[in-house]
Amino acid sequence: MLHVLVAEDEWWIRSALVEMVENMDAGFRVTGSAANGDEAWELIWELWPNVLITDIMMPGKDGLALMKDIDAMALPIVPIVISGHSNFQYAQQAIRYGVSEYLLKPVLESELKQALLRSMERLESKRELHGTIAEIQQLLHDLPSLEQAEMLRQYTSLVDRILQLPHPGSSVNLLRIFAAKFNELLDGAGAVRAMEPFPESRGQEEVRHYFQQLLEQWLRLSPKGNTHFVVKKVCDYIAGHYMDEIHIVDMASFANISCSYLSSLFKQHTGLTFVHYVNQVKIDKAKQLLFDPGKKVYEVADEVGFASLPYFNRVFKNSTGMSPNEFRRNIGL
Amino acid sequence: MKLKKLQRLRNSVHLSTRFKMIAGFLSVSLFSVLLMAIFTQMYYTKATKADFFAISVGASSRLNHQMDFYIRQLIQSTSTLIAGPLASSLDAGKSADPELIQRWLRNDNDYTRADIARIEDTLRRYVALNYSEIVNMFVVSADRNVVSMYGSFLDTDANYRNEPWYYLAMERQVRILPTHLTRYPQFAGVPVVSIVIPIYSTEDAGLIGRLVIDIKLKQIESILGKFTLGQSGFFFIVADNGTIVYHPNADNWGLPRQLTDLRSLDLSSQTSVQPWGDKEVLLASSRSDFTDWNVAAIVPYEEMASGLAIARNSTLAVVLILSLLVILLVPLLSHRFVQPILRLTNTVSDLQIREVQLELRQKEAVIQALQNQINPHLLYNTLDIIKSMAYLEKVPKIERIARNLADVYRYTAKSPDLEVTLGEELEHLRNYLQIVHIRFPKHFQSHLVVNPKYAACPIVRLTLQPLVENAVKYAIEPLGGKGAIFVSAYHTDSTLIVEIADNGPGIPEERLIELQESIARITRTGSDPIVQHESLGIANVHARLVLRYGEAYGLGITSFIGRGAIVSIRLPLRDFAEIG
After folding, report:
1. Beta-carbon neighbour count of residue B118 at 10 Å?
2. Which among A275, A280, A279 has a CA at the least distance from the CA of A262?
3. Torsion sign across C-alpha atoms B80, B85, B90, B96
4. Least CB–CB distance from B392: residue in A15, A85, A86
5. Which of A40, A242, B198, B552 could make an S-S bridge to A7, C-beta 3.0–4.6 Å?
6. What is the C-alpha to C-alpha distance for residues B488 and B499, in angstroms, rounded to an integer?
7. Which residues of A touch B428 (CB under 8 A)?
8. CB pairs below 8 Å between A and B: how many?
9. Closest approach of chain A CAs to the CA of B555, in angstroms?
10. How would residue B485 be classed by pLDDT, with cut points 50, 70 and 90?
């Protein structure tokens, strides 16, 4: 199963891309969609997709900048670029950032499928890296809720495991990603002293020491009394706007904290990631709406902010264990 | 093109102005100097001649007068000698008997030697008193007895028979005989002028004899010697009978003119310019009625015109100086004068260049504006939105046509690489034809039967699709889509021929001729000013093919009324062997 993130500013195109991926029935699923480059960047750290499908021309951080950052961090993500231009300079730039798939608008399903299948092969080498990143992500999410002893055990074991990876290049990459992510979390949570960024070449002991310091900083953070209030505020907003697309970037700025911190607070207070929480709210609302027999399923999906029916169906099934139609039959409609 | 031309113009102006100015100044000044020289030559010559003639005629007549006066005085002074009474009153001496000559002449037979000696004495005394230049004096009686101033016992009349005056008839008027050499024993070979004075009887006034005075040319020499003419100019005197009376060269004295170098001269007119020897001479003469002599002044023309030579030399000097000045100063001056003009010219041509650039930029702007009429981002995004909606709503034909339209526009708007491969052109054509197929859903047929071995052959971009579009417009549309288009390709030795055929109504003959003429014009000149809007597609494609591949390539049109038309594209066959 490959996780796909879609970044495209046009609603219709984005929706169609999501639906195309969902419809392919070739082992791909959309984990999220973003309307601009900044949001896509946040969602990458949140969802760790395997493939990024991105437009080039987007407001804010554009597709090229996004790919440049992915390339610079050596994130284990395969990008697929879509563009109206067969502009050679764009294509050249994209190739420089390691892009091998360049699709022209309007994207046809068949072409997208071919591109995704080709991307699968490229991903094989990044699999291992990807699993570890998921673990890093998981640990950082869990930090607020873990007992100190357990936290220390998991943390040291993860750092050791990364250090002992057979391929030193990927080891350094992962450590850098880990450090960047943790620093961002600390920053967002209001750490007193920002850590220096992860240095390039260090011995294992120094690396352990560096990560030790990161954790000490986290432990030294006095738990903020109002974190609950912050999460509550965001939850209230989501409850009132379930029909819209709700983006973590907007919420982070709404709550005046970093995306990472918001994400980790969500995990702490709700037990779910931000994206899962939002989907949960929407599916709960959808369940209510499905009780109305006059409503078609796609109308329900539309009302809770899903442009793509297959995507809605899949998210609904993930959440409830059944499809919307099965749900209806279950309740006797 | 225009820009380059202007640039060239500017350079040539800059380079040649100085040269032109030098040449101009030089020719103007040389021309004026030349003109001046010609005028000087003409007027100076005239003036010189006039001056010479005025001076020399005046001088020669003055000389004549002086000589006349001298001779008249001489004659005057002899009157006492030959008349008698007056002389006796002047000189009461016994030895000088004025009546002696009269008496001797009247009756010379009874005169003694003593008497004759007294006559001789009288003559000698006269000479001693008056004129030292007198060589000899003779009293000649009517029957030609001669008493000489230097008489002697040996003296006989026979001694004087060779003198020119001896046989001269007795006349009442004074005769002046031109220079001749004396032959008498006392003074032989002396050049003298003889003055023959008639003696009248004091009693009856009858002609009784003559007094002959031979005078040396001393006096004449002294008179003429004062006058010089130029360096080698001189005066000479010729008697009416041609005898040279006087000449600066004493050897010529007394000779007939015909025996000397003066023989070629024409003395008939008072003033003249004549060739003499190897040069041109100015000649002026004046005649005395008293002596019957001509006093002539002769001077080589070039000496008289020495002023002219100076003028000529100074003209040359002026030419040199002027040329030098022009060559030295004009570059300096031209720099000062031309610089502002050059600056002006440059400014003007800059302006022109700027204008041309502006024109180009405006044209570019127009093209840009035309391209921007469809903002590509908007176009492709909108087409993708349409396609996405179609996808979500499950209308695949809309998806397809949206994608085809996007592809067609992308290919058309691509930065103009001149050449693509036939494969790319065919791909583009397929995209276009898919739209046509959607447009005419059931009956339209298109067949692209091109062997893949031609796929890599180069072709000017946007050759096939505009021609097919043309065929769709004139063949398929009138049939309501119930037609077919065939695209095929084959090759001869070195030419690839791609044919676009349709089964439409064909091209009307008139129109076909127009099209073929237009194509021929384009082949010849590269463009066709009278191309009509309808044939723009064909003309444009043909023009681009001819420009790229040369006159041997391009379009050919055949039509069969009611059955269809064929446009054949001739291309150079390249990149074929690798595949073939």
Report:
1. 20
2. A275
3. positive
4. A15
5. A40
6. 5
7. none
8. 66
9. 30
10. very high
Flag if B389 and A12 touch (Cβ within 8 Å).
Answer: yes
Q: Cβ of B406 under 8 Å from any chain A Cβ? A: yes
CATH architecture of structural domain A2-126: 3-Layer(aba) Sandwich (3.40)
The alpha-carbon gap from B461 to the nearest alpha carbon of chain A, in Å, equals 16
- CB within 8 Å: A104 and B389: no
Residue B384 and residue A308: Cβ atoms within 8 Å?
Answer: no
Cβ atoms within 10 Å, residue A146: 15
In this complex, do B392 and A308 lie within 8 Å of one another by their Cβ atoms? yes
CB atoms A106 and B389 under 8 Å: no
* Contact state of B391 with A16 under an 8 Å Cβ cutoff: yes
Q: Mean pLDDT in chain B?
A: 81
Q: Decide if pLDDT at B162 tops 90.
A: no
Beta bridge partners of B499: B488, B568
Cα–Cα nearest to B238, from B265, B215, B219, B214: B265
CB B81 within 8 A of CB B122: yes
Lookup: tokens for B256:
């007939």
Q: What is the CATH number of domain A227-330?
A: 1.10.10.60
CB B149 within 8 A of CB B136: yes
Residues of chain B contacting A88 with CB distance shorter than 8 Å: 415
A20 to B403: CB separation less than 8 angstroms, yes or no: no
Predicted-assembly ipTM surpassing the 0.90 threshold: no
What is the DSSP-derived secondary structure letter of residue B229?
B
Sign of CA dihedral A230, A235, A237, A238: positive
The average confidence (pLDDT) of chain A is: 85
- Cβ neighbours of B135 (radius 10 Å): 23
The single-letter DSSP state of residue B130 is S
Nearest to B383 among A88, A106, A308 (CB): A106
Distances (CA, A) of B575 to A189, B544, B547, B555, B578: 66, 20, 20, 21, 6
DSSP secondary structure letters along B14-59 = HHHHHHHHHHHHHHHHHHHHHHHHHHIIIIIHHHHHHHHHHHHHHH
C-alpha B312/C-alpha B42 separation (Å) is 12
Question: HSE on the CB side for B365, CA within 13 Å?
Answer: 6
Give the residue-averaged pLDDT of B141-155. Answer: 74
Residue pointed to by tokens 């992308």:
B410
- Which of A16, A85, A88 is nearest residue B388 as measured by Cβ atoms? A16
* Mean pLDDT value of segment A185-203: 69
Q: Which of B547, B538, B501 is nearest to B518 (CA)?
A: B538
- Domains of chain B, with CATH numbers? 2-51+306-359 (no CATH), 84-220 (3.30.450.20), 221-302 (3.30.450.20), 420-572 (3.30.565.10)
Cβ neighbours around B64 below 10 Å, total: 21
Q: Which of A12, A88, A89, A108 to mutate to test the interface with B (most CBs of B within 10 A)?
A: A12
The token pair at B223 is: 């008179």
Provide mean pLDDT across the span B567-575: 91
Tokens of residue A219, six digits: 């432990």
Angle (deg, nearest 10), helices A11-23 and A109-123: 70
B275: which DSSP letter? Answer: E
Q: Does B380 touch chain A (CB under 8 A)?
A: yes
Q: At what angle do helices A248-255 and A274-290 cross, to 10 degrees?
A: 110
Cα separation of A242 and A305, whole Å?
7
CB nearest to A105's CB, from B380, B389, B414: B380
The residue of chain B nearest to residue A22, with distances taken between CA atoms, is B392
Question: Is the sign of the CA dihedral B286, B287, B288, B294 positive or negative?
Answer: positive
Reported as a pLDDT band with limits 50, 70 and 90, residue A156 is confident
- Whether residue B88 is predicted with pLDDT greater than 50 in this model: the reply is no
**Residue B96 near residue B126 (C-beta atoms within 8 A):** no
Nearest residue on chain B to A10, alpha-carbon basis:
B385
